[in-house]
Design brief:
alpha/beta, eight-stranded parallel β-barrel, 11 helices, 8 strands, disordered C terminus, binds 3-methyl-2-oxobutanoic acid
Length: 282
Amino acid sequence: MQTPETLKAKKDRGEKIVMLTAYDAPSARLAEAAGVDLLLVGDSLGMVVLGFSSTVSVTLEMMVHHTQAVRRGAPETFTVADLPFLWAHEAPEAALRAAGRLIQEGGAHAVKLEGGAEVAPLVRRLVAAGIPVMGHLGLLPQTVLVTGGYRVQGKSAAEAERIVADARALVEAGAFSLVVEAVPESVGRSVARAVPVPVIGIGAGRFVDGQVLVYHDLLGYGVGRAPRFVKRYAELDAVIVGAIRAYADDVRSGRFPEAAHAYLPVEAVPGEAAGPGSDAGA
Ligand code: KIV
């Protein structure tokens, strides 16, 4: 299993890091079987699994519940769980307890939280308490109600400088890794060069230390159109709809179930008359 140290060693060796989101036992099991380096129980859970329109509806209870499922499915994979909406802005004691639940009850190995220098004191606090922290910069989906949409960040020089300064502040506070989302490639590269810890990009271009994608985006599974930065490696929607249609056709036409799907005939019970549908009557 990877650790913050082995992930840093990968960066030092110039080896790319592979992260994928997972939300339940089967997605985690398949990602582990495919050999990803680390899993993220992202609060994108709210959008791709639970049907909410943003991540702000995701609660700590939901994150604990789904993190437990992911850990059961992928017991050998380093797993990071998102600290959901608002918790990074609660009083430090409350935020510490929330992060602690993701570790103790959820079984996560680390937590991820959104925000820049303003959350650095919390990062310091969590790390001092023994909780590894991954930062999240660039596009911050938990702020969508204020920003009004999911837009590329860091397009001006001033914004780009702020993102790099935030990255330094988080790492200075003890973050073992950063996610950088939806920034120009040049900004992704500047962040990866500015800090000694692994920088995992999502829509941050080629020159970061690793990549993360959302499971459903990668697989074309139930999510409709994907952002520009997604590469689709499968089109599961078509496969799944086709399979369900075939099942429905088979049931309606009597092709399913066949004899092979039925349990073996029961020996005739002495004294019992053969009823409708019994083998004795067939
Ligand atoms: O919630 C999530 O899936 C994330 C990724 C987009 C990095 O934070």
